[in-house]
Amino acid sequence: MNLANYFDKVKGFGILATADSKGNVNAAAISKPVMIDEDTAAFIMAGHLTHKNLKSNPHASYYFIEKSDKYDGVRLYLTKIKESQDMTIIEEIRKKRYPIFTMKYNNESKYIVYFKVEKALPLVADGVLKRGVTQQ
Question: In this predicted model, what pLDDT tens digit does every residue of 10-52 receive, in sequence order?
Fold first, then answer.
């Protein structure tokens, strides 16, 4: 699957799950990633709990649920590799990808956080969701 094409074309919403160094979990609604290449995803975020967790624990999981009546989407297993506060890059991505949010978040601290995509899986594995019965 070409993740860049997928996230450019498919509508839906995402949830990024992180945990701090003690294992306290946080899940937050977040926009689709920007795919730098097939192995690198980037998210723009403010300096809230998700960003704080990534400072002490670089591992995260991103669930993207497609806007449809089916259970389609993708799960990404991620490891943070770097971050930047380069507002030129952040603004370029925001204006291209999220024009309606450009003004809303102008006053918040912004980061672009880059992740290595360790694994990409379908949102729901084949045969798992059939009237609540899982395959053995």
Answer: 999 999 999 999 999 999 999 899 999 999 999 999 889 999 9
Task: Please choose, from the candidates 74, 70, 69, 66, the residue with its C-alpha nearest in 3D space to the C-alpha of residue 1.
Answer: 74
CATH architecture of 3-122: Roll (2.30)
Give alpha helix (H) positions in the chain. 3-9, 49-56, 87-97
State how far the Cα of 54 lies from the Cα of 48, in Å rounded to an integer.
10
The length of the chain in residues reads 136
Contact (CB, 8 A) for 128 and 50: no
What pLDDT digit, counting tens, does each position of 82-97 carry?
999 998 998 888 877 7
